[in-house]
Protein 1
Amino acid sequence: MTVTPTPARSRLDPEPMPRRDFLGLASLWAAASTMVFAAIGMLRLPKAAVLASPSKKFKVNLPESLPQGEGFVPPGRSVAVFKDKEGVYAVSLICTHLGCIVKQTQTGFDCPCHGSRFALDGTVIKGPAPAPLKWHKVAVSGSSVTVDEESSVPAGTKVQA
Amino acid sequence: MSAALPHTAIERFVANLKAIPNNLRAATLRGGTPNTDRSRSSFVFGNVFLHLHPVRVHRWSLRWTTTFGLGIMATAAFLITLVTGVLLMFYYKPYPDAAYISIKDIHFVVPTGRFIRNIHRWAANVMVVAVLLHMARAFYTGAYRKPREFNWLIGMGLLVTTLGLSFTGYLLPWDQLAYWAITIGANIAQSPREVTDALNLTESFDPGGLQKLLLLGSSEVGEEALIRFFLLHVMLLPLVLFGLAAVHFWRIRKDGGLVRPANADEILGPRTEAYPVFTEAPKKTYQLAAIVKGKTAAVGKGPENTLPSMPHLFYAELGILMLTAGICLALAMVSDAPLKELANPAVPENPAKAPWYFLGLQELVAHSAFMGGIGIPSIVLIGLGLIPFLDRETAGTGEWFGGPGGKPLVLQAIVVGLGSAIAIEAVAIQFGWIREWFPKAPQLLITLINPGTVLTLVYALYSVWLVKKHDSTRAGALGLFTCFLCGFALLTLIGTYFRGPNWNFYWSPADWPAH
């Protein structure tokens, strides 16, 4: 190829491009962008639209004698339901750090995985947990309590029977 | 075949029958028996499985101390997991509870099932160790330098894929150990929320939630997660590993073989045995001049200090494969792969521990989920990936701990790396950290300033200081890499042996409180 020096052209007046080069580049870019879009489309598939998990809303009868400050954990649920003079409330037992199930102690909740410690109202006292334990929405009718594990309400929200 | 040709078709048929062994052999070995340099070469490049190898290999590459066979050991361990993994798939069922029962069957009922599963587990462990040591070898001999930067990056991809294979395999038994380790892992993937929550962004921008959703296919570890991990473990990641490994091996060849010092030939000295060299004159000349830059390889040079790969390199590789298999089998005989109780989403293991090579990470995570699980690992990976582009020196390439500073610097870096990690961990264990000192501290501060990030900062500052002191980027790289290895080893050790229930520090499991 021989190179002949040409006067520098401005950005707005570029070198003319041969038709074949243009068509070749255009088809190359068309193929590349098709593949990129196809890849994005394929990535859309594993992002589930409907989550295969059972309903998180459940109804439970509180035991007759539930001492103040001691949560009742319905079997198979990760929630502690409390009852005191101001009403009924439910605190999530899922650690906000990495999802382990916390255990209730005399003074609050301990996480077995990385040592986070929470007060009885869920606030973080110690450890790596970035947020307090969630409070769930409860509805009370008589002695039965409905808890929605997917909802969250501000800490301190208690519901009177 | 000088004898007269058989006359009848029947005679020819019998003669052909007799000649089958010879003809089969000739058809298989296209270049004939590999007994001359020429046929040995064609044995390698005429074989689809061998042609990733060089035809001839430098004598330096065959020394034990050049590589200790670590890359081959990692490959051998991978092949062992491949074979045993396929065997395990005969019985394994990737569905919750059924998975647990099938592993139990493999362990207690299937003939040789327990042994095969043990080998699979041990080969996976050997692979992780070999990959890490291989990386250290490549680093300390300066094998990441030009023109091998790209292969260093591919190697990092292989490291991540290896860890990914281990992690995904961990869920498959569906026991308590598996369930809670993966719950923790999936929540680490979600941990960018720690930052987006603190900035009140999660509603509109939630990469953490997306990562967890893609990994688990659900909001918690369940059947969707199990089938995804199974798919990743037996199909997707092995394919990725195959692709990366093929490029990795190919580039070793294309980048000029294994790294060796400039004066390798002097160190090796003259050959002590009579090796066959160019025993046959080439029968044709190659007209490659039009497509290959530079002079023809052999013009103006004596024969290089190389040996034919067949048999020298292949026998060495076979030896390492046998050694690796021996190690895995021996370990499989003395130690069973664990299988705890069936996964129970209501009661976590206490302590819930990941496989040992993730316990350093878990130790970091115990200070901050985001920085420990995503932030610091990303910084480490980016740092390791940048090393070949930041250190462009050439002094000491091919020598163990070569370059300014050398071995004394590495020893000093070990002291600094271990010392600072012990000091920072001791403070955190003894006196707590920001949350205990200032309970009202904002979450972002607790996330950003934790023992893990402080340790990373100390290492970074130390290496910058080394660059200045020795006036060499290699010195900084040596310090940084050594510190990284020390930090990894120490945190892994603490996570493995000194953490008990509630991730509290105990000198010995004997001190753990009774349940």
Protein 2
Amino acid sequence: MISLVVVSHSRSLARAVVALARGTLGADGPHLEVAAGLDEETLGTDATAVAEAVVRADAASQGDGVLVLLDLGSAVLSAEMALELVDPQVAARVVLSSAPLVEGVVAASASAAAGADLQTCAREAEVAQRAKVEHLGHPAGADRQTPPAGVAVHPRQGPRSGTVGQPGTSPLLDPAGPPVRTVELPVLAEHGLHARPAARLVARAGEVAPDTTVLVHNRTSGRGPVDALSLSGVATLDARQGHVLVAQAQGPRAEEVLAALVELAAEGFGDLPPAEPLAEDPPVLSVAAEPGIPVTGSGLEAAVGPVVRLDVLPDPRAVPAEGAERERDRLRGAVDAAVARLEELAHRALDAVGRGEAEVFTAQATLLRDPEIAASATARVDAGSSAAAAWSEVVDEAAARFEELDDPYQRERALDVRSVGERVLRELLGLAEPEVAGEGVLVVDELDPGLALALDAARVRGVITRRGGSTGHGVLIASARGIPVLTGLGERADVADGTVVAFDQRTGRLDVDPAPEVRAEFEELVARRRAERERALRDAHVPALTRDHVRVRVKANVASLAVARAGACHGADGAGLVRTEAVFARWRQAPTVEQQVEVYAALADVFDPHDVTIRTWDAGADKPLAFLPAEEGPNPFLGARGLRAFAADPALLLDQLEAVCRVALDHPLRLLFPMVSTADDVHVARSLLDRAARRAGLPGPPSGLRVGIMVEVPAAALRIGTLAQELDFVSVGSNDLAQYVLAAERGNPALAPWSDPLEPAVLQLVRHVADHVPAGVGVSLCGAVASDPDLTGLLVGLGVDELSATASAVPMVKRALRAGSTGQYRELADRALAARGAQEVRELLGLAAPEDGPRRKSAALSARRAAGTAR
Amino acid sequence: MTTLTAFQAWLADCSAVIEQQAEHLTELDRAIGDGDHGTNMARGFRRCAELAEEEQFASIDAYLKKVGMTLVGTVGGASGPLYGTFFLRLAGPLSAAPDVDARPLAQALRAGVDGIVARGRAEVGDKTMYDAFAPALEAFESALAAGSGTAECLRAAAEAAARGRDGTEPLVARKGRASYLGERSAGHVDPGASSAVLILEAAARTLG
């Protein structure tokens, strides 16, 4: 642990400061030495006494270093002189702090006790007065900070290594330069400071103040500082949601650049929507569900064809160097060409897919402009490498650093680095965009976004990847374009070129060199899906009637306004479930009543004349909302979720209910309470609704507003006759119901044998609900099974009279409904209820058992894409 | 030629004159500082004057180093490290010489004044002791270049220092405690420049 020396004119002052720090920390604090006053009474400082104190403190710190905190005037001169009096080796381990004495000693002691190193303690001391400055609301000018590097007479500084953005490298601000300004940048967005927000930070810093030095470190993780103009540096700060970054700027536009960064941070570095609703569509993860996207692929999630591959790059290390100057020019030219191409791709992606995807390319272009990468590559060229060899080495190193990061989402950004790396290499080697040799199923290591956008969908029938997660931008882009993708197959993807493969993205099935009859089967599957899809889309807007003319409404699950539009386009008979927590997931502050009124009314307009089901905030420790923090209990799924979360403080729920009441006055709305288990819960929900209605100035809830509860807790299902007595409808949340009935987490592949939603126990509860609701109470079902056309008949046969599905699944579910009569469906369901287990139910339905792994992965991916944050 | 005894006499003279002027120095300091300059200086130089009686010194430089360290440890205010540095640096060019003439003394004076600048980071016009030391050094070196002896050089230096001191009166302080006063520091002679003049005048009386 470091030691502290308190230098003051007054011995009693110094002792009092030490007592204050010790009082705060008890025995855990650092070793504190006092060098103050000439004697007990005489004010003054004595350099020799300071020197002696420093030597004692240094011995106590065992080499960890000494931080000297000073009061004023001669204390500074004496301390400086003291460092000349002690052994230079000791002096090298000492930092003199310009922090205010009291704050500095307390803050540095606390940091030291927490195990911080000398530089960190020095930094903490420097910023210790900020709390006071902020509290008193003094302007930014009062926050003028001198950086620790600037006050350190003998700062311990490692030599700046040539590697890119290595955590711990410390590019120094100029101690003799203009004042250094400091701000904190909270990381608000869900995925932290991943590549795109990092690129925005770098771009903003470069745009506002290219002539100003800006350093950023991650105060939470201790990573950095890094140069804010270095994307590879900033991205390796490993800044996740909730972390706090500290930016320091020194130069002519220090204040402007920090103000710009603060503004950017408030927007989650571009990942959070502006605070006004509907100014722009809420972010949609389901690009595929967006209307108006040219779908150039088959969209059938299945493909058959010979394996094709991309041309292979020659080994860049074998490229001979032709003189440093020539190679430098080449490198510069190649990088410029690649940047130009990426900017073009960004425009294309904006037109073809969406803003989120366009920014992937903008971020990649920014990555290429990274001065540190360029400097590292140039250094290697100067050392005799060819541009191609130098570039490929630097890129490999940068990618490796991303792969070391803890956050899986950020780890995937290594792909971005490799992707831009290859783009420049191709330029250097004089090769064009990757060529796909022939028509068929493309096998790649990972699917990079540029490739996914550039693929000729007429020739590439599908893509198989060896590596790469399902959240890769490339996979999302390909899916949006309707190109079937099967990801993460590992060695199973090592198939010789030209071998015929067939795969079904829905089941995860992959057949290599299938027998002629299997191949024919696949081709038939593709043809059938195409025909079905075309028919389904044609009839999507026609109400779905069973053969005996019973209407079953098929509604859409909605997580954003854009998804709502997609649902309406696909013929949904309204919204069966608006996940309000998903609609507002990226809001940092709770939306006001007015903002909610605007959003719910807009959703209702999209589905007009059909109704829209607003589910109240369904948050909990398993899916927390920024504006509704949940206490982490021992078992969040069995904790204060949904309605229960408002038992102590219903304020946010009342706001929401008031908005619903107001919108329901002139729109067809339904209201759905989640996580209801007892009759008392229903009573509480009802009373809150009455209160909210009165707040809206109404005598009671609007007459047109129909009220229901989610049936996801087995207790509610079993007692539905009692619970639903005063309700208009109930909605079975089949995902959670299955999970609670089977006591198995459905996201855990190891529990797959126990978490099948087709387990007869689950089906029996659904039937029980349908049989026992009071007359006139509707039974809806929302959950993954509602989106599967293979299960539609079964669900209707159990007694469900309304389904709420993923928007894009609506046409197929409607089509499935039309195939049979309610009698046939009832009979099918009766047989399913008599089955021994889920497997027998599947056989009954003519379904193969789901293959573990890929199907779950692809199902999870579609669920995420469709529903944003919903689990 | 100036001997160890002369240097010891210098410090005795300094101590006497500063003791005598302590109240005046404190007065000056009270106007623009914290009002302890006279007391601090008197305490430090008294200890220095006593050194010769307590201890045998082998050389001039050893003696001056001890004076420097004594000032550092006893003056208390900013003058401690500043004058301490002055005497410590003064010792450097005089190492091990039994006696000195004007030339090494000029080198010593330059080293001492440079030490003050390095320690206090002051410039001419900041209203500090450097405003007395800077012209003093210049005058000493000019006199030396003109072929003057030690006594004449020191007299020139002391006179230049006094003019420098008087020149601090209209200045606005930019260093030290006086700088907190800003414009209000103008209209007063700087106490540091005043004590510097006392020290240089004592030198002219004893080292020449």
